[in-house]
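Supplementary Methods S3. Complex input for the IPE-bound model.
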Amino acid sequence: MFKKIKLSDNLPKHIGIIMDGNGRWATKRGLPRNLGHKEGVNAVDRTIDALIKFNIKVVTFFAFSTENWKRSKQEIDGIFDLLRNYFINQKEEFLLKGVKLMSIGDVDKFPKDLVDELRNLQEKTKNNDKLIVNLAINYGGKDDIVRAVNNLIAEGKTEITKEDISSHLYTADLPDPDFVIRTSGEERISNFMIYQMAYSELYFPKVLWPDFGEKDLLKALEIYSKRERRYGGIK
Ligand code: IPE
Ligand code: IPE
Ligand code: MG
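Predicted complex, serialized as structure tokens:
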């Protein structure tokens, strides 16, 4: 199965993943929504292993949007617990796998102990270079642009270029995503990296995020590898 795509050919450098469908996965089984999020963490682990296997260099997982505050306190606290435990438990794993953790979004709104664990893991993994795992938490594409522009104003800029904006987004140090996958069949962007996605290839598989694994990633990469990116030009 793995041999079908030539790995050097036409693979995305940066993949964005909108991990959707955790709630439906749980509800279908008569379970509380947070068990869907819990199972979603296992899918993240599987996906990280598969990304490393396929030699992808950067992944951004959309884990909590600026709109997700609309959910119940119970669900939000459950997501915070999962994130906190993830940061605590992944230390050895990330070092072994060569994963460098990054994050985008306004984490100041998150519990301080969670942010401390995040910063701690970022510091511990900062020299790893096998795979960058970028977590979008309390992230919104519109917020990202507004924040960039406000920072440019604060720097005294009166006229700004596209490059100025790119270099002031949370993703300043990352390439734009070549490929964005949203699971669960919903076909929308939901305020993900809207500026950075201007020319991303999009893919909306039906699979619910907790069921996502290596074979789903491989299928996605096969689809991407056949896409022709024209950027407004002609082949
Ligand atoms: C995505 O799954 C995870 C987050 C938004 C945190 P959902 O929780 O949105 O799952 P559905 O869409 O309700 O199935
Ligand atoms: C998008 O999923 C956000 C994340 C995956 C973190 P949502 O489930 O929040 O998006 P909508 O509300 O269906 O657009
Ligand atoms: Mg959803």
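The first helix runs from residue 22 to 28. Residues 13 and 56 are 6 Å apart (CA to CA).
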